Amino acid sequence: MAAQSLWAVPRWVQRLLASSAASYGRGWLHPFSTATQRTTGEDCSSEDPPDELGPSLAERALRLKAVKLEKEVQDLTVRYQRAVADSENIRRKTQRCIEDAKIFGIQSFCKDLVEVADILEKTTECISGGTESGDQKLTLEKVFRGLSLLEAKLKSVFAKHGLEKMTPIGDKYDPHEHELICHVPAGVGVQPGTVALVRQDGYKLQGRTIRLARVEVAVESQRRL
Q: Is the pTM above the cut of 0.70?
């Protein structure tokens, strides 16, 4: 009796099972049956949009994006070609300016030298005229005036273009500006290691030495025992 009471089915469970059997016998569908699930699935699928719309929209978006990118590539290509053409034109103009500067860079200097040549030519004509007349004193005076005028004009031209003559006498010997010819004994008032005599003038152009001055440098005289 004790074992039967433990395994006895409760009455409410028996009533639920009996009700379910009766419903199944009358053809009712269980709420969790396969048929119910199939019907529910069919109803849900009928409400979803067709599968053909998804890929078509994606393809259309990709095509629009591809057209946009292609247009951007074309614009960038045109800009690049224009930039290359502009840089090439600038390079050619710069090269032409450099060549012109090499050729015509001394144009102003040459123009001023022409005036010096005119003075020299006039002086030569005066000398030849004085020689024919036989007045040597007058000829020498003309030569002197012509040479003086020529020297003054040359100094003016040199100063105008930044060409200056160096006057190194008394300055300390500098191998970057002076070319040593020989050493001479230091005289009175002459410091050893300084320029005592200039054999040929040196010149600077805009502060840069273009010709060294040929000089003699003073040194201490050796005493004889």
A: no
Could you give the count of Cα atoms lying within 13 Å of 190 in the half-sphere of its Cβ?
A: 22
Tell me the CB-side half-sphere exposure of residue 89, using CA atoms within 13 A.
6
Helix, strand, coil tally for the chain in percent (to 5): 60, 15, 25
Q: Dihedrals φ, ψ of 49, to 5°?
A: -70, 155
Domain spans of the chain? 58-161, 163-224
Token pair in block for residue 212: 């060294």
Q: Which two tokens stand for residue 170?
A: 């008394």
What is the CATH number that goes with domain 58-161? 3.90.20
Coil/strand/helix, residue 208: strand
As given in the structure block, the two tokens for residue 2 are 């004790």
CATH number of 163-224: 2.30.22.10
* Residue 194 per-residue DSSP state: B
For residue 172, give the DSSP letter: B
Q: In sequence order, which residues have a C-beta less than 8 Å from that of residue 109 and are 6 or more positions away?
A: 157, 161
* pLDDT tens figures, 165-187: 998 999 999 999 999 999 999 88
